[in-house]
Prior knowledge:
Blueprint: E1 5-11, H1 26-34, E2 44-49, E3 72-76, H2 86-97, E4 101-105, H3 121-124, E5 125-126, E6 162-164, E7 166-167, E8 187-189, E9 196-197, E10 206-213, E11 220-227, E12 230-231, E13 237-238, E14 241-244, H4 252-255, H5 272-275, H6 277-294
Parallel strand pairs: 1-2, 1-3, 3-4, 4-14
Antiparallel strand pairs: 5-9, 6-8, 7-10, 10-11, 11-14, 12-13
Amino acid sequence: MVQPIRILLQTTIPTTEDDWSIARFSLLHNYLASVQNADGEYLFEVTARDITPDADGNDPILSTLNQSDFDQLWLFALDVGEGLTAKDIAGINAFRQSGGGILTTRDHQDMGCSMCSLIDIGDVHYFNTKNPDPDESRWLRDDPYTTYISWPNYHSGANGDYQQITLIEPVHELFKNLQSASGLIEFFPTHPHEGGIGLPANATNARVIALGKSLITGRNFNLVVALEHYQDAQGNILGRAVANSSFHHLVDYNWDIERGCPSFVDEPPGDGMQKHPQALEDIKIYVYNVALWLGKKGDTHS
């Protein structure tokens, strides 16, 4: 009998109906929970929750994550600095130092910047006021339409549409799709203001594996960064990690526009995902690949 990989889908905001709370990631949740092997056994056991601070302001799950039974954390960082406490950060870092896999994603400007103290992960996410992109030519607004949102805010397309992505050679296993004619994942959901990710100057265990392209400026931007296992100075073998430039790659609204969005979203949506089902299949295969890849425990030669 297969032991399912235990995945925690977690936001960094409290449950709020008119926001991007975890209930708006139900299609992702349901898809992962439905995946079975050839023997009909479920591969993933999925828990989904929002931040729930205790009396001291710490999240009781995240702050003790290394003591939990979870194998993976999929962190949707939707705050603008107040989401994770120091104790939450310590719990997540200890979880990764014990081999746990982590997917992190955020969005434009400073959304998700409470992640900045996560080992490695805080270095690959670029924000407006914290850890900005080392390329200062990118310190400017890419999306000219939603003027109250500043950089980074790459405009890959309307919510509900899809983008054709560029894969970096050699193609990472996260982007293999044996069910397609090309054998590769080609499409991702789009968003009018994706965030910034990249590599610190001393990165040896991480690489950019996919690019998006702005519909406004034509400029390429980093879409996904993959971080491999490595052994730290204390002898811990850290789990793998993945960074996505936007949580909109994984939220219900961008998989199925009919699912709706919070009232503060005012950009006109598209219908490309509905008209081009291969784009939805591609993002599901990506999700499946990530869950398997993060679930592999490593050694220093992985």
